[in-house]
Write a structure and sequence with these properties.
By secondary structure, this protein is an all-alpha fold. 89% of the residues lie in helices and 0% in strands. This is Tubulin-specific chaperone A.
Length: 127
Amino acid sequence: MSDIPGIRRQLKIQAGGVARLAKENGLYRKEADQLKLKRDKLIVDDAESWDVKNATRMIEESEKMVIDTATRLEKAADVLGDLVVRARRLLSQFVIHTIQVLGEKESELAKDPALVKAKEVLEAAKA
């Protein structure tokens, strides 16, 4: 039972990290799309070649960040998924002699805010 507070803390930390990375990834995708529109406008407006090259470089940097955050998000989501499984396993391993106490522990597990939040964040990140 002493591991439960540690697991809850790790669930909160990992869920926060996955949520942050998902948000970052979305922002970088949006930025790359906006930069592409800006570059296309520069080309249509017959801007200087330096401006077009600079816009292209900025797009490449944003696309690299999209790839980087997607990779980090995937790894963080895997860690969070493993942690959710571990939390379920840990909480279900308690041997309790009375069915009433066991039922209370199971319902407590199902309602645990850290576990519920972690599951929600994990589902949102995988979508």
